[in-house]
Amino acid sequence: MSRSVSVGSLGIGGDNPVRVESMLKTPLSDREVCLDMLRRLSEAGCEMARVAFPSMDQGDDLKKLVELSPIPLMADIHFDPALAEKALEQGCPAIRINPGNMGDPRKLERIVHMARERKVPIRIGANSGSVSSRQVKDAGGNRGLALALAVEEQFLMLLHHDFHDVILSAKSTDVGETLEANGILHERYGEYPFHVGMTESGSGIPGITKSSVGLGLLLSKGIGDTIRVSLSDSPVLEVETGYEILRSLDLRHRGVEIISCPTCGRKKLDVVAVLSKIKPLLVDLPDGFKVAVMGCEVNGPQEARHADIGVAGSPTGIVFFRKGEIVGRCPLYKLEKEMSLLIEPYRLKS
Question: Which GO terms describe its molecular function (predicted)?
Answer without folding.
Answer: 4-hydroxy-3-methylbut-2-en-1-yl diphosphate synthase activity (ferredoxin)
